[in-house]
Amino acid sequence: MVAQPTLSAEVFTIPVGPADYLVYAPARRAAFVANAPVIEFLENLKRGVFSAEADPDGSLVTLLRGLQMVDAGPEPHPYATYQGEPEPVGVTLFLTTACNLRCTYCYASAGNAPAKFMTLETAKRGIDFVAANAVKRGVPEFEVGYHGGGEPAVNWRVLTDSFGYAQQRAAALNLRLRSSAATNGVLTGAQIDWIVAHLGSANVSCDGLPAVHDECRLTTSGKGSSAYVIRTLRRFDEARFRYGLRLTVTAEHISSVPESVEFLVSEFHPQAIQIEPVYLLGRGADAASAESDAFIEAFRLASRSAAERGATVNFSGARVGTLTNHFCSVSQDNFCLSADGSVTACFEAFSEDGPWAHLFFYGRPAADGQGYVFDQAVLEGLRKQAVQNREHCGHCYAKWTCGGDCYYKWLAATGGGDFSGSARCHVIRELTKDQILEKIAAAGGLFWHEPVVCPVSVKPPGNC
Fold first, then answer.
1. How far is it, in rounded angstroms, from Cα 250 to Cα 290?
2. Which residues span the domain enclosing 127?
3. Does residue 178 sit in the same domain as residue 271?
4. What is the pLDDT of residues 60-80, one digit of tens each?
């Protein structure tokens, strides 16, 4: 006689075929494929109804117990919460809104407005702040990243001088310095050499096949930029420098994604390739959406092609290897400085001139010349953007891996109103489902289970 089991996990059932379902408990990192009678059994358990006749030999209950879906006690949830004054140990410097490209879909519309340039004094203040926080919190390192609503290398002197200053502070405080940059790859030979010699890694925007790249990523004179980017990647590979690639997909180029990825993984050696549908922001605001079933299929083909060569492709919203209640660091006290020196949590909200700046800019330099003054109301609003506070996400099986998706894109999609789902949500769910099935296959084809404990944490170190 099988004792009556008690459901101990949030369990989702997802159709994966005419008669098959995926049974998935995200917070338990567990899943298996089942038929309709098993789904009915689980639905009855959810209602507190159990019939031993539905599992006469107890094998189903034994499986569910092994996967911690029943009789495992309270289920941990991946909550990370933040309180009090921010104490970041990483800063991202948005060095400039100027750019040497005029990409057709640029989310920042770089080059459309008068350019802003960060001063060295502004960069130093941010570096001093995060280095001091590292000492205060007993963290052995701090991080400096270079990004922005333009190309960081355009403000080259401040980039190199601020990095030199960060090195000095790290040495004086006996701390390690981590560093990275996002770049369009249109760099001089001297800039490439400097990056290789000094930074820890870079993320390079490259849209794959030269013909595709050149159609979307134009220089200020209207010419394609692929030759410059290819030179940069070759130099990075020669130096065995760590870098990733960011491939943006427009609707008209979805069909070329598998071939573009094949080109990138056969010609270069990136750590990973991030593939994203074009953001309907900035110059891309009126573009046709690439968040479609066609994108999903193209991504699947590209992923298989890359895997055959030992390479990895990623999509920001699908990450079954992660359990989190945050999509990104926006809701985790992310500390970025605009070119003017104000504090923002979001890479898309890089300027106080933007439409949603009032929701993302939460700090300004203190009048005494040191540190920052924070707007607690704005900060708390950002901290609340964790997935457990989003009603629409409550019944989604991808919520604890997606983390609620991008807050900025939600605002852009709704005009600031209530969010009720989007085509991007569909992409996230489909690619998440793929990853779960891959986990099952890699574990032997019967089930997948990676037990995990997710303690509640307050102010985890660093910018996640």
1. 6
2. 85-376
3. yes
4. 999 999 999 999 999 988 888
